[in-house]
Structure formats: C-alpha cells, structure tokens
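User: hey, got a sec? need Plant-type L-asparaginase folded
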Amino acid sequence: MRIVLHGGAGDAPDEPEPRQEVLDEAAAAGVAESDPLSAVETAVRILESDRRFNAGVGGAVQSDGVVRTDAGVMLSDRRAGAATGMEGVEHAVSVARGVLEETPHICLAGDPAVDFAADIGVETGVDLFTEETRERWDAANAPEGSPSEHLTWLTERFGGSTSDPTAQVSDGHLAASNADLPGHDTVGAVATDGETFASATSTGGRWFALAGRVGDVPQLGSGFYASPVGGASTTGAGEDIARVTLARRAVGHLERGCDAQTAADLAIEEFDELTGSSAGVILLDDEGVGSAFNSEDMQISTASSH
Ligand SMILES: NC(=O)C[C@H](N)C(=O)O
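Assistant: Yep! Here you go:
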C-alpha cells in the first residue's frame, strides 16, 4: 500500500511539528490497512479527530454558529460517495464511505445525511467546537437575523464577494487566506494497493460562510477524484476549486501521460491563472506522488508498506 496525505493549503501553520506528527501517524495507520478505501478512511479519521485541522473536531463555523462537515471518497472504478452540511458529525469521511457502499447515490446532504450516519453506526451529536474555534466565533459578534442579514457581516469576513468572479480574480489570494484560522485546514488522502486508487477529502468548510454553504469538498471532481490512472485530493478556496473542477483537472493530466508531479504543477498553474485564488493538490499514480500549492504552505505526508 502507498498513501499520500495533506493537512490543507493555507497560511503557515502555528504548530507545524505536532501537525506533521499527526499527519505521519495517519499515513502509517493508512498503509497498514488492507485496501485503499480503508487506508484513506483510517488516515482521514485520525486527522478529523485532531483539533489542529479544519475537519471534524476543529472545523470552521458557518454564519449561524454551527460547524457543518463535508467529505467525499472515490475509487478508480468511479464509484463515489459524499456527504455534506452535517451538524455534529466528526467522521464525515465514514459517512461518505457509507454513501458509496450502501446507497445508489453519490451525495447526501443536511439532516437526512446525519440520520443516515446514525443508521450506519457513525457517531452523531458530537461537539465539534474546540476552545480556539469557540473563542474565535464568540469574538466575531455575528448578527442575529435572517440569512440575508448575515450577508454584509459575513462577506467582510469571508474575504470578498464569492458571487462576483471578477472580485475573486483581483483578490482571490487574500480571500482564501483571510478568513481561515492559520494552520487549520481541510484534510485529504490518496492511496493505492497497486491496482485500485482511492481518494478522500474531509473539511469543516470555510470560516464565516453563509449557513448551508457547500464547498468543493463533497463535489465530485472538485475536492476529490479517482480514475484507473490515479487519484487526487484538493484543498483551498472551495468556490474557486469548484469553478475549475480542480481534482478532475489534475487527474486529467495523469490521463494525458504526465507524471504525478507535473500533473500537480500544471493543475495549480492553471487554477492560479483562471481564478487568481489559492489551492493545493496531492496526486498519486502508479509511479509516485505529486503535490503542488500556491498558498503559503501545505503539509503532506507519504508512506509505503513495500
Ligand atoms: N480549507 C479548505 O480547503 C476549505 C475547503 N476547500 C472548502 O472550501 O470548503
């Protein structure tokens, strides 16, 4: 088994060493599994449980003061599952796996996704706040009121208009890093046993997004993708990642014959040109690993059992 993980693209983390240790521990636990889907699930679950990452516990808070989690998983044969907008679900990746394995669908959302999680034995009702995220939320003085009343307040904090692509081009780099808690970011993994690739990505989304916002992570081809030649997991400004279907784009470069590093570099170069925003990607193919980002930092870890 071979695996590569990322701990999110964003500002330089304030606790790089302990984060790296957790990433390395997750990679080691992943390669010990017997199939790629279990490898990515096991690795991502460890990261979801660590408060230093924006996934599961420690996830970003939406404009109504709720942490909602999202995840997606995909296999080389294009079976896929995702789950989004779940309150109180730490292990979104396991719900996404459940959607892949147990349903004829590729994505479940909101309260019904939480009910499905409970039905398949994924713990629900978990407090996803940490001391740090609680303090940050309390200091933000969110206004009471309807979603439209939240918009002025959140647009200032979210870092620019997300409905105006021109604004994203001019200040996308700022927008991506502005709102996120430094060093707390989306997590993802890609693994292979030499035959099948599995990709997984999990997140709490972006800080101060409008309640109900769904980013790239549970969108097939944006936050995650796999095909017979390899797999990808992305991180960064989700609206912009979705605009260019970054994970699909990166795997497309593998399909056209690029090695994993060239494919990752090309995908981020194109993303940068098209959106002016910030993102990162990890890729795995038969030969090796690729990773690229245009944010300040993106920690990764790789492990192999042979
Ligand atoms: N930090 C991240 O990677 C956030 C994630 N891509 C989202 O937009 O939901």
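Quick note: The pocket of asparagine is lined by residues 8, 54, 180, 185-186, 203, 205-206, 215-217, 235-236, 238, 241 (CB under 6 Å). Let me know if you need anything else on Plant-type L-asparaginase.
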